[in-house]
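Okay, any thoughts on this one?
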Amino acid sequence: MNSRSNYRSTRTSLFDGIEEGRIRASSYSSHEIDENENDQAIDGLQDRVSILKRLSGDIHEEVETHNHMLDRMGNDMDSSRGFLSGTVDKFKMVFETKSSRRMGTLVGSFVVVFLLIYYLTRLV
């Protein structure tokens, strides 16, 4: 009797779902599950694409900001270069005469002493 019930349970488990209605239902639910997984994957891809789109937009804005900043810095450097070349020309004129050289040496010495005192006070 025990082997007979064992045989029935084995037979039932082997042929479970073979009836036509059950096969259709299981394949339909499998197809439906595949569709749901595909829909979830598509939603995930759409989310990733929108994140990448926002990220690339943010990168574009950052690049534009840095380009403007570099342009302004280049313009400032050009104006500083012009200012420094004018200053160098004035120093050349000062050092051309002997009396001006003494004055230039005095001013240069004063600047060096001032910078030395400034750095010594910063260290303390």
